[in-house]
Amino acid sequence: xxxxxxxxxxxxxxxxxxxxxxxxxxxxxxxxxxxxxxxxxxxxxxxxxxxxxxxxxxxxxxxxxxxxxxxxxxxxxxxxxxxxxxxxxxxxxxxxxxxxxxxxxxxxxxxxxxxxxxx
Amino acid sequence: xxxxxxxxxxxxxxxxxxxxxxxxxxxxxxxxxxxxxxxxxxxxxxxxxxxxxxxxxxxxxxxxxxxxxxxxxxxxxxxxxxxxxxxxxxxxxxxxxxxxxxxxxxxxxx
Lengths: 119, 110
What we know:
The complex is a heterodimer of chains A (about 120) and B (about 110).
Chain A lengths: L2 E5 L3 E2 L5 E8 L8 E6 L5 E7 L7 E2 L7 E6 L4 E6 L8 E8 L6 E4 L3 E5 L2
Chain B lengths: L8 E4 L5 E6 L11 E6 L6 E4 L13 E6 L2 E6 L8 E8 L5 E3 L3 E5 L1
Parallel strand pairs in B: 1-9
Antiparallel strand pairs in B: 2-6, 3-4, 3-7, 5-6, 7-8, 7-9
């Protein structure tokens, strides 16, 4: 069974930084690209970033490019999202998701971790 | 990258069929057969119900089907059931090498 568990969400002040983690189990982590998606309170899903299985070719949505950094440690089966220069509009539940074993999709999701940006 | 447009809400009675459109551009929905659909019940994580326009993951009910014409993808739910009440999001690969989610549709079973 594929299990993804996000952690690291917290209350942070505007301009601050936070690192989210996503612990993976139940599959060969290094074989799969991974993704981050967020959802602001009462709003829709927003794609953020992706990274290949070997840690290469990170890509970002324009809304977070230059402020967020995706990375992974395959020895620890863990995906990360470093978030800097946080803004009020970054407040959301952050989900990690696994790339589809078939086709182009996100076939497994974590339960999400809440990031609150407020002074 | 602008989000593909979805109607805010769609409703139907049990047993009916409903179709949810997702309208993008030639740079996303219309340019690639990499459209997926996600079902998100209140307070839960999303779950993929359709990928690559019309492919259904193992374990997903065959009441869910997908199609695409031009810049508009569609999700059809046939034989609507109470358990189908949720938010539904389309998602497409884009020419920027990223993904983009649609604005989302709330499905209500009357």
